[in-house]
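Record format v2
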Amino acid sequence: MANTVHIDVVSAEASIFSGEAEFVVAPASAGEVGIFPHHAPMVTTIKPGALRIKLPDTAEETLIFISGGILEVQPGLITVLADTAVRGHDLDEAKAIAAKEAAIEAMQNRTSDMDYAKAQAELSEALAQIQAIERLRKTTH
Amino acid sequence: MAGSKEIRTKIKSVENTRKITKAMEMVAASKMRKAQDRMRASRPYADKIRNVAAHLSFAQAEYKHPFLVKRDVVKNVGLIVVSSDKGLCGGLNTNMLRLSVNQMKTWESEGKSISVSAIGNKGFSFMSRVGANVKSHITGLGDVPHMENLIGTIKVMLDAYEAGEIDQLYICYTKFINTMKQEPTMQQLLPLSGEQLGSPTGHWDYIYEPEAKPVVDNLMMRYIESLIYNAVAENMASEQSSRMVAMKSASDNAKEVIGDLKLIYNKARQAAITKEISEIVGGAAAVA
């Protein structure tokens, strides 16, 4: 049995790769890192690039492109938490600003402070309608 | 045969409605399966990042992330409301919003101010209609939740937390239990409590590269995002199954109405025939 380490590549939307590897090269933010089995525990951020996984008993390497994320290394386990979106401080900031502005724009024509009585009345009315329909359904059977 | 034409038209229109609700039921059923798959697909990531976050929260002594620090005085609360974009899904959004509003009322009575972030059209239009302080919102997510679309909305709240504008962050969404059962749930996101993360399996500290702070910052942000992403994915699965059930009962109701109307129609038809026969018989008897 070859000396291998288990590697999981997962993103929030899907599981990308899971299996044994002899050697892994990841594009860490401070430079590429190569990881052999029994590496010391390590956490690092990774930048967009290719993750190279050398599978046992084959000369070839599996290439997975990731748009950044986090790499966690334990002696017997490597976990790559891949981002699904291209991330960057400026990009995130721009998205946040866009979201904020959209909210401000939408809030401009609001009348006053939160009216709880109105909110609750509206909801209980909707709920009563649903319950009435259900009751009606039961009685007709 | 008075009214028989009206009854026929009515039957036709109910039949058409039934076709639509039946189609919506089947669409929702197929979307529900996909939504459930997506919900499950996001689980490995959530589990892994949770493990790493748990390790960090215990191992890291020199730098404590603000998300892990509990604040003594809670004056401002943030709430993320996850709802569906479209209606016709039974009491899904109503139940969730009721839970939110009740909780908001409690906070209000405790003298806390509330900022809301809305994911989904229904929650957003409700919150802005009743005059809640909506900080950010995202609508029109479609059937597939994409992290990319959520980042901005979430970041507004996380930034507000870090800046001290809010002291606690909650999320309210509909938890998917099974096809027939969905439950509105309120969950505290920030500050992260120790129980939420669980205890790590061993005690060691990591080598941080390049250094601890950016790595921990990054990880914590992604952890919160993954929690929210999960909530959105679960809410979408709930939405589809709730819609499927609602549309199924609508189709069943339509079927019943059609049956009733057909009975009335046939009775009217039979009465007309009987009347005609008795008139003919009566006429023949008079002639003979």
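Chain A is about 30% helix and 40% strand.
The longest helix of chain A spans residues 116-140.
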